[in-house]
Amino acid sequence: MMDLATRRSAGGGTTIPPERMRALIQRRYGRPDVLESAMIDVPSPGPREVLVKLQAASVHPGDVFIMTGRPHIVRLAFGLRRPRRQTPGMDLSGVVEAIGRDIDSLRVGDRVFGWTTTGSLAEYARVPQDNLALIPDHLPADQAAAVPTSAMTALQAIRDIAKVLPGQTVLVTGASGGVGSFAVQIAAALGADVTGVCSSRNVELVRSLGARHVIDYETTDVTTSGARYDAILDNVEAQPLAAMRRILAPAGTLIPNSGNGGRWIGPLGRIVAGRLRSALTRQRLRPFTSLGTRDDLLALAAMLSSGRITPVIDRTYPLAEAAEALRHVAAGHTRGKVVVTL
Questions:
Q1: Cβ–Cβ under 8 Å, residues 335 and 205
Q2: pLDDT tens digit string along 78-125?
Q3: Integer-rounded Cα radius of gyration of the chain
Q4: Cα(180)–Cα(311) distance, rounded to whole angstroms?
């Protein structure tokens, strides 16, 4: 039973979360069929953690990799034979229900969004304070939940790795997807001349996000357009690396970011190869792994508040159909983000 002190609110009152909650759990690696709904204990927040009553969660390809245990290298972090973390999901939004004794920047009742390593496909989640930010007043919970991992990946790729400057040319493949839809908006907000690559059904969407030029991959091979780009965020990696380098400026930056690769080590081989090739050319090949930071989450909150970025939501599912949400993401070609509502 939680100490009542962890439930204190700004006004000195308390709230009483239930002892049990509905959650999606998995006991073995596999496809979404391994997931099941169950009643489990509501977690207690530690000294620097809060208990969030979830309103929404989003799922993305990283959740699929963890769920399936493929590539096998993910099992080094999440359990060799079976997942150590029972509840899948990372990204979330909701209301602070209880706080740990050392919390100094959040209060009971705050609307927050962020990420957790203990699972977000549940009614409640235990989240470190530094993994959360306040939701902008105008933003619905489902849109807030769509932001953390995908938008942070886009922000770090465009701003930090490519170091995009006003007037530079930026190419984003998979421009209508979760990371791509944020990357187009962030690059445009930084003053770049953005080209998005997507299917014909998403051309108008990508243009509305701020892409000055849109290439329909169903009719046009981007590597034969004759254009060259200062930065390329390749979220699809459908073309050989050599072909993408041909459309990269002599001192440009290419960021492969599909997450795909071999059965055992996934994209790790390409990451190593990219680093080695960068040592032999002025072109920078920069595969990377995005790591969440509170500073980046706060930067995204500011961009949401100002309207510089707006989440694109493909579909929403209730918690009871969260396995179907993961199945939809695993199939590929999502249009923006997939959200689970509670």
A1: yes
A2: 556 677 778 999 999 999 999 999 999 999 999 999 999 999 999 999
A3: 20
A4: 11
Burial of 100 (0-12, 13-18, 19+ CB in 10 A): buried
Where do we find the tokens 């590929």? 332
Q: For residue 136, count other CB atoms closer than 10 A to its CB.
A: 18
Q: Which residues pair with 51 in a beta bridge?
A: 98, 126
- Report d(CA 61, CA 79) in Å as an integer: 18
DSSP state of 110: -
302 CB-near residues (< 8 Å, 6+ apart): none
Q: In whole angstroms, what is the distance from residue 63 CA to residue 146 CA?
A: 13
CA distances from 74 to 80, 168, 262 (A): 9, 36, 12
In this structure, the strands spanning 49-59 and 124-128 are antiparallel
Residue 307's region, left for phi above 0, alpha for psi from -120 to 50, else beta, is left
